[in-house]
Amino acid sequence: MILIDIPIWAAHGTVFAHLVSDASFEELHDFAARVGVPRGAFDGDHYDVPERRYAACVAAGATPVTGVELARRVNASGLRLRKRKGERGIHRWLGVPIGAGVIADIDLVASSLPTPDLGTGAAATIVRDRNKSFLLVHSIRRGSWDCPGGRREPGESVAECAARELAEETGLTLEPTTLVPCGYERLTVSDPAHWAAPRPLVQVFLADLLAARPTVTPGDDVDAARWVSHDEFRELCRERFWWPLAAYLFDLGP
Of 9, 59, 117, 245, which is most buried with the most CB atoms under 10 A? Predict the structure, then answer.
């Protein structure tokens, strides 16, 4: 069912309502497209609808509810994407296989805020050169192209983890202090023994280089490392669960 709360949320000189589905994101996106609410108004689990479009949404079949009821229904449906103030919800995946029989619900969030240290179990880095080429590695275990990254080791900071994984997988050495937070993944896993159960966050960093396609060498757990164009990045990675975050950050399209 499509639900909409009262437009009381002030921003940009007007007030907004929240438009949600308690059944599926597909239903929500289809309804929003039908009533002319742009995809750019989507914030991870809802659309922000300006007051002037509220009546049109109701006329098209959205059920008016209170904010409390809307939140209750979205929480109960499993479609709620949690984020902090100032962050942008990008996508929520439900029931994603992530290896060895483990299933995860995954949130993708764009944010310039660092993730909480105690909740962060891994880190990845999106690396661009001065000509806006991207650095990818091919994972032996997953058989897929990804950005360099991996799990934290005892005693290292989140940024140190990202820098170490980058060096181990590509031979590219960067100072941890040069890595800039640009978003994160939250993995809610079914297996309590999985590494993400106690620390579900994966910090995503951005590293912009002054050099053009510096030499890289595949290392630990990867059998290839290469620089790619925007189009190649999309072609190689668009099926990966994290792609909507990269596409949003760099305007790369679906």
Answer: 245
Contact 168, 88 (CB under 8 A): no
What does the DSSP assignment read for the chain? Answer: -EEE--S-EEETTEEEEEEEESS-HHHHHHHHHHHT--GGGB-SS-EEEEGGGHHHHHHTTPEE--HHHHHHHHHHHT------TT-EEEEEEEEEE-STT-EEEEEEEE-SSPPPGGGEEEEEEEEE-TT--EEEEEETTT-SEE-SEEEPPTT--HHHHHHHHHHHHH-----GGG-EEEEEEEEEES-TTSTTTT--EEEEEEEE-SSSS------TTEEEEEEE-HHHHHHHHTTSTTHHHHHHHHT---
In angstroms, rounded to a whole number, what is the distance separating the alpha carbons of residues 71 and 76?
9
Tell me: the pLDDT tens digits for 40-78? 999 999 999 999 999 999 999 999 999 999 999 999 999
- The tens digit of pLDDT for each residue in 193-244 reads 999 999 999 999 999 999 999 999 999 899 999 999 999 999 999 999 999 9
What are the pLDDT digits (tens) for 92-120? Answer: 999 999 877 889 999 999 999 999 999 99
The two tokens of residue 240 are: 């990966």
Q: Which of 102, 108, 99, 81 is nearest to 242 (CA)?
A: 108
Hey, how many other C-beta atoms are within 10 angstroms of the C-beta on 229? Answer: 12
Task: Assess contact for 30 and 21: CB atoms under 8 A.
Answer: no
Longest dimension (CA), the chain: 58
